[in-house]
Amino acid sequence: MANTTGTLWVVATPIGNLEDLSPRAQRILGEVAQVVCEDTRHSGRLLAAFGIKQRLASLHEHNESRVAPGLVARLLAGEDLALVSDAGTPLLSDPGYRLVRAAAEAGAAISPVPGPSALLAALSVAGLPTDRFAFEGFLPARAGGRRARLGALGQEPRTLVFFEAGNRVTDFLADAAEGLGAEREAVLARELTKLHETVYRGTLAELLERTRTDPDACRGEMVVLVAGRAEAQAGGGDRALLQQLLPALLEELPPSRAVKLATRLSGVPRREVYELALRLGGSGVQ
Predict the structure, then answer these.
(1) Overall number of domains in the chain
(2) What pTM does this model have?
(3) Among candidate residues 116, 136, 162, the one where a domain is terminated
(4) Does 161 share its domain with 217?
(5) Which CATH number fits the domain that encloses residue 171?
(6) How far apart are CA 278 and CA 227, in angstroms?
(7) Structural domain of 126
(8) Does 285 map to a domain?
(9) CB within 8 Å of 212: residues ≥ 6 apart
């Protein structure tokens, strides 16, 4: 039988740069019966920037359970609706799950309009393994809950991805360094696609020091990525690769840089790489 329901379009919107709103997204946002959004003022400004005049309805964490049934009824009556979040792809640390689930259970048509995502944007530029990753979103704001969750992730071998607010990122990095290991390779991506986009790379200890000494590193929206346990575990790594890499790196780079790069590429603990560098005559290793 032909599907006679309306379609719930799940539409990704820019995380910063307005040019990232696709032509398809613009068309659908202008054609649907209503756009369902977190903040009508925010989404109203976005639509106005593209000359789109549209009815808006609010859906957020405090009202989603209450308004979802009515929206599903409209879909079943044949209306098309678009779901957006304030930025990025809906449902990823944003409202919309209850509505999408209710629409699916009712048999309504649901279709994605892919586009911007802070999660994927950060992964694409981090330089950490992307074949397998674990998205943790925002951890608890309270220190106890945050530390407990980080402790539970200590053995996770996949790249870990977190969202964090600028005013909490230093506390987050301090707890991550304690719970996951200060020498874990990590990336701090801030203000992606915006004017002040910056990507910092280093160990958790180095990123923590950066946020403690550089006020700019604590401003804006943050994505924090941390290498999985396999790249930093004691006794782990590829020692045969290390034996090949380190002598060549010591010939071309300052010893401290050679040790850092060899640690990253081989997965062997830094202390072991450091000791091997000393045996190979790498003076000036720090």
Answers:
(1) 3
(2) 0.79
(3) 116
(4) yes
(5) 3.30.950.10
(6) 26
(7) 119-230
(8) no
(9) 170
Per-residue pLDDT 10s for the chain (286 aa) are 456 899 999 999 999 999 999 999 999 999 999 999 999 999 999 999 999 999 999 999 999 999 999 999 999 999 999 999 999 999 999 999 999 999 999 999 999 999 999 999 999 999 999 999 999 999 999 999 999 999 899 889 999 999 999 999 999 999 999 999 898 999 999 999 999 999 999 999 999 999 999 999 999 999 999 999 864 454 556 777 888 889 989 988 998 888 888 888 887 888 888 888 888 875 555 5
Name residues whose C-beta falls within 8 Å of residue 129's C-beta, 6 or more positions apart in sequence.
Answer: 158, 159, 227, 228, 231
Identify residue 181 by its one-letter amino acid code.
G
Q: Outline where DSSP puts E strands in the chain.
A: 7-11, 34-37, 56-58, 81-83, 109-113, 133-138, 159-165, 185-190, 198-203, 221-226
Residue 66 lies in a domain: yes
Same domain, 45 and 146: no
